[in-house]
């Protein structure tokens, strides 16, 4: 069973040719979701077993409209990328969210420094992560873990990892620090960055994005 630490939220900006930054965007009322993202239709993708990119044009049950089944997509991008114990399906799907960047803010639980969080930016950059299936009860349990660390549930849109800028997307839930905290960056500890790199390496996520975030606070 994973030692899941959902308060350690991390993200990184990934452009088509590596990581890139952008100008911060004003917070919006729906928890950080842009109007453009809200208008995106559901995309088509599938995957199974190990974390691998999804062949374009295939349809998978994870990305289908699951509202009626009570299933939510949970997007994680943290130091522990394993599924939370309450996940309805432990099958990992590697996906990304567009229009967000990485900032380190707040305070870490060990070693001082800060943890990382999503920040809505004016850019077409993307953040890689893992999607799991969860239900409402699981999200409520995760709220209890995230809340004391200051992280809040937010609605985003995720898409498959392809070179296509026109990739369609579907709604997902993630956790992030409030915008006011995210706008006040601070340096993470070396121990935190080491754990972050190890987690990303373990899921074959390019750690160059971490380097970019550290170099561009």
Would you mind describing this structure in some detail?
It is a single chain. This protein has helices spanning 35-38, 136-146, 179-182, 190-202, 208-215, and strands at residues 23-24, 71-76, 89-98, 100-105, 115-122, 126-135, 152-160, 169-176. The protein is of the alpha+beta class and 217 residues long. It has a single domain, classed as Hypothetical upf0131 protein ytfp.
Q: Key terms for this structure?
A:
three-stranded antiparallel sheet, disordered N terminus, single chain, 217 residues, alpha+beta, Hypothetical upf0131 protein ytfp
In short:
The chain has 217 residues and is an alpha+beta fold. Helices cover 18% and strands 27% of the residues. The longest helix is centred in the last third of the chain and has 13 residues, at 190-202.
